[in-house]
Design a protein that fits this description.
- By secondary structure, this protein is mainly alpha-helical.
- It has one domain.
- It contains 15 helices and six strands.
- The longest helix is centred in the first third of the chain and has 37 residues.
- The relative contact order is 0.16.
Length: 379
């Protein structure tokens, strides 16, 4: 296999790693924000919940930046097309993300109840909405997206953004993503919180884990009826990075299961996802939040890995003109760009993992309401 094709494969795997990191770390913070009004029955308890993720939430945003940056640099055609197709959705995502850091900084600056209640609602919206959009994006690309390119490379969108937001399968995937986020956030609240936050977080996280498992199974069955995409002619993995005049692509119900039939070991990926979800629930019920947190991370690996394994090598298939579907092979950067980016990724991704692990170790331990109330520098 040519070096160019190998680099493409490496980068789609790295993209998967970054998307899992985003779901696990950013999803954890979003889950705490979503649960804030429910695990905290008064102002002091809500402040305690915020300070549980206070030392880490802004550092975890690096996974969000890395994910977008990786798509921009490694798969620029995918970046440009997806951000154009989902423009309105992206704007909703950005606005919800913008109010989140503002809420952290300003919520406790004024002691007025209405002021703090307003920011608590902002946490709920900025926690739930991004995770719903994150999951819905996977649901949309699994169904295919209505777009095509003209002879000169000009992009045209052929479906309304409302369909991307409101179609049933995308909603299911969005709720699944939200459930995984609540699962991860609840595990974190248990890990660093005490009663009564501990018990409330456990109830929500356990329920979210079982809901996620049920939705994951339903989604897997649903996938078998969705029209997937397959190359109907031989394709060169080292092909030029252009969606124009690409190999023939066919749409067929159940095609997203072809990779699993061809390589049965891939069935381990969704199995690991289910083990993570159910195992997380059982671990939290047993009072082992650290194990539950790691099993929650396994849930994300299994969920995103299942979507990636089903779609490979497609990244964003086109329902309007299937032959112009974006894939790992025709939407990547040059070999020169992918090579240099790999060098930097091998330096900075491990560095991010190391400093994140260090930060969680140094700033670990239980967060108590009385400590937060006495500390003027706390959120």
């Amino acid at each position: 296999m040519e070096l160019y094709a190998v680099l493409k494969l490496i980068w789609v795997l790295l993209l998967g790693v970054l998307l899992v990191g985003l779901g696990t770390m950013v999803g954890m913070d979003m889950g705490v924000g979503t649960l804030l009004r429910f695990v905290g029955r008064n102002d002091a308890e809500r402040r305690t919940a915020l300070n549980i993720i206070g030392p880490h939430w802004d550092g975890n945003q690096v996974w969000f930046i890395l994910g977008g940056g990786a798509i921009f640099a490694a798969f620029p055609t995918l970046y440009a097309t997806s951000f154009s197709t989902f423009y309105i959705v992206m704007i909703l995502l950005l606005f919800s993300m913008i109010i989140r850091p503002v809420a952290f900084e300003y919520r406790s600056k004024v002691e007025a109840r209405n002021w703090r209640e307003t920011w608590d609602w902002a946490f709920l919206i900025s926690g739930a909405l991004p995770m719903i959009i994150y999951g819905a994006a996977f649901g949309n690309v699994l169904q295919g997206v209505g777009f095509h390119f003209a002879w000169d490379g000009q992009y045209y969108q052929d479906e309304s953004f409302i369909w991307y937001l409101l179609n049933p399968f995308a909603i299911l995937c969005g709720v699944l993503s939200l459930a995984l986020s609540i699962q991860q956030g609840g595990a974190m609240l248990m890990l660093r919180g005490v009663e009564p936050i501990y018990g409330r977080a456990r109830r929500f996280a356990v329920s979210a884990s079982f809901i996620a498992a049920a939705l994951f199974i339903i989604g897997g069955i649903w996938i078998s009826f969705i029209k997937g995409f397959v190359y109907s002619a031989p394709v060169d993995p080292a092909m030029a990075a252009t969606p124009l005049a690409g190999p023939a692509v066919a749409m067929r119900a159940g095609a997203w299961l072809d990779n699993f039939h061809a390589f049965p070991l891939l069935w381990l990926v969704p199995v690991l996802g289910l083990i993570g979800m159910i195992g997380c629930a059982l671990s939290l019920l047993a009072g082992r939040p650290a194990l539950g947190w790691w099993l929650g991370a396994l849930s994300w690996i299994g969920t995103i890995g299942t979507a990636g394994a089903a779609m490979f090598p497609f990244l964003m298939p086109s329902t309007t003109m299937p032959s112009q579907s974006l894939s790992v092979w025709n939407a990547s950067s040059s070999a020169y760009t992918l090579g240099w980016m790999l060098v930097f990724a091998l330096i900075f991704v491990p560095a991010i993992v190391i400093y994140t692990s260090w930060a969680f170790r140094i700033m670990g331990g239980k967060v108590r309401t009385e400590t937060v109330s006495k500390n003027e520098h706390s959120y």
